[in-house]
Amino acid sequence: MPITDLLERNSKLYGEEVALVEINPEIREEQRVTWKEYELIQPTSTSYYRRQITWSVFDEKANRVANMLMERGVKKGQKCAVLLMNCLEWLPIYFGILKSGAVAVPLNFRFTSEEIDYCLKASDSDVLFYGPEFIGRIEDIAEKLKKNMLLYYVGDQCPSYAEDYYKQVSNSSSVAPRVLVEDSDDAAIYFSSGTTGFPKAILHIHTALMQSAKMEAMHHETTHEDNFLCIPPLYHTGAKMHWFGSLYTGSRAVLLKGNSPEAIFRAVSEEHCTIVWLLVPWAQDILAALDLGKIKIEDYKLSQWRLMHIGAQPIPPSLVRHWLEYFPHHKYDTNYGLSESTGPGCVHLGMENVHKVGAIGVPGYGWKTKIVDEEGNAVAKGEIGELCVKGPGVMVEYYKNPEATAEILKDGWLFTGDMARQDEDGFIFLVDRKKDVIISGGENLYPVQIESFLMKNNKIHDAAVIGLPDSRLGEIAAAIIQVKEGMELSEEEVEAFCIDLPRYKRPRKIIFDTVIRNATGKIDKPKLREKYCGDHLVEKQNQG
C-alpha cells in the first residue's frame, strides 16, 4: 500500500493521541508566534517553544494541503518542492503533496540560491513551499521562479511575490482527496549530497517509502509505546526514513531544533523519549560533556531511553565502547544506506550484534548485498571490493539522467561507490568511499581505517584523513585532528601513537584544526581537500 495509507490508518486508530511534538530551546515564551490550528503547550517544567499535533490533526492538515494544491491545478505526477527547517508543518505538507498524487521534492536547507534554482529545474518542480529562513535566498531568484511556479510562504508576514500558506490552506477542505495513489506511483525526489558538483535528483516510488517504514520498525523493534527523538533535518532520507518507523507503529516523535548535549538530554528526559538517532559529532559532544562534568546523567530522567543508533558515516568503535560505559543498558545499532537506497537500513548491524561494533552489519530486511571487483565479479571473503545492494528500496533512476543512472544501476544492483569487505561471519565492514581512497607510492590507503585508529586516542575529539599531493609518492595521508576541549596534543605525540600502524598507513602530515562535517554529520572531504589541497580537489573528484 502507499505510504499515505499509514497516516490515514493512524488517524482512525490513534486520532486523539499525540503524533508530533516540535521543540526549539532557543525560542522563549515571549518570542513565540502562535500558528493557527496547532496546539501550543508549555509544560510547567519548561520555558522553551513547544507545539504538538495529534494524528487526526496531522491527517487533516495533509488533506487540506492536498486539496489546496488540487484546487490550484496541481495534477498527479507533478513535482512540489519543500524548503523548510524542521517544524510541525513539514510532514503534513509532505504528506499533503503525496495525497494529491504529486511528487514531494525535499530540498537541503544549506542550498544556495543557485543550487535551489538548479534543483527546482532538475526536478521539474511546479510548486515550492518555503519558510522564513530562506526569504533572502528565494528573493534572489523570485523573479524567475514566480513566472513558472506557485510559491507558498510558510511563515509570518508573507512576501508580495508568494502565497500565504496559512491563509490558503485554512480555506481548503479537510476531507481526504479522491485521488488513487498506488504502490508503483512516483512518490519523492531526493537530492544527492552533491560532493562532486551539483546534486543529482533521485526518484523513488511509494513501494520504496513503505519498505523503509516497515524495515525501520522491524530493525529497531519499534512499538506503539516508543517515542522517537528526531534531530537531523527532515529533507534528508536518514531522518525521514527513521521517523517512518514511528509512522508505521503510530507512535510519537519529537522534532528537536538544536543538537547540544543539554538540549538532547532535556528533550529525552522531559518528553520521555525511548529511541534517539545521533550523528557522530553529536555523540562525541555528549561524551565530551559527560567526561568534563558539564552535564550529569543523574540530573535527567533517562532510564526509559532504550536505543541509541548512529548512521550516515563509518562509526569509530571506540566511540560506541565509550558510550556503553555511560549507558550500559542501551541497545545500539549502526545503519548504513544512501539516498539512492531510500536512506538507512539496506545494511545494519542489528541490536543483538554489539560485539561486532566496527562493522556496518548484514543485509537489512528485504535486501541483498554483494562485494565486487572492478570487473563486477564477486570477491572472496576478506577481500576489498565495491559494495552493491539490491532490494525494494533501490531508486527508480536519477531523474531524467539515464547516463548517470546506468553508471550505478546494473541488473537491479545499486553500485554504492563504497569499498567494503566481509568477514567469515558475513558481517560487512566499510573500508572507504571509492573516490576517497589515497594511492600513495602504489599502495591503497583507506582513510576510514586510519581515522578509526586515531579515534582510539583519548585526547582526540575528531579526526579526518585526506590525501595531499606529493611529487614522489603521488599522494600522502594527512590527518586533520581536532583535540578535545581542555587537552593538549603535539605532533610528536600523534606520531608516537601511530607507531602501531603499519608504516605505509601512518599519516605523513598532521594538521590540528576543526574537522568539517556536513549537515548529516559526514566528514566533508571535498571541503577539507579544498582547504588543504587546492587544485588537487578537482583531480580527486574526477577520479570519483
CATH architecture of one domain: 3-Layer(aba) Sandwich
Number of strands: 28
The first-level CATH class name of one domain: Alpha Beta
Class inferred from helices and paired strands: alpha/beta
Distance between the termini: 37 Å
**Largest sheet composition:** 10 strands, mixed
The pLDDT mean sits at 89
Oligomeric nature of the chains = single chain
Widest sheet, order of strands: 2-3-1-12-11-13-14-15-16-17
Helix-strand blueprint:
Layout: H1 4-14, E1 18-28, E2 39-40, E3 48-54, H2 55-71, E4 79-83, H3 90-99, E5 103-106, H4 113-122, E6 125-130, H5 135-148, E7 150-153, E8 163-164, H6 165-170, E9 186-191, E10 201-205, H7 206-219, E11 227-230, H8 237-249, E12 252-256, H9 261-271, E13 275-278, H10 280-291, E14 307-311, H11 317-326, E15 331-338, E16 343-348, E17 362-363, E18 368-372, E19 385-390, E20 397-398, H12 402-408, E21 409-410, E22 413-422, E23 428-433, E24 438-440, E25 443-445, H13 447-454, E26 460-470, E27 474-483, H14 491-497, E28 509-512, H15 525-532, H16 536-543
Parallel strand pairs: 1-12, 4-5, 4-6, 6-7, 7-8, 11-12, 11-13, 13-14, 14-15, 27-28
Antiparallel strand pairs: 1-3, 2-3, 9-10, 10-20, 15-16, 16-17, 18-19, 19-22, 21-22, 22-23, 24-25, 26-27
Helix pairs in contact: 1-2, 2-3, 4-5, 7-8, 10-11
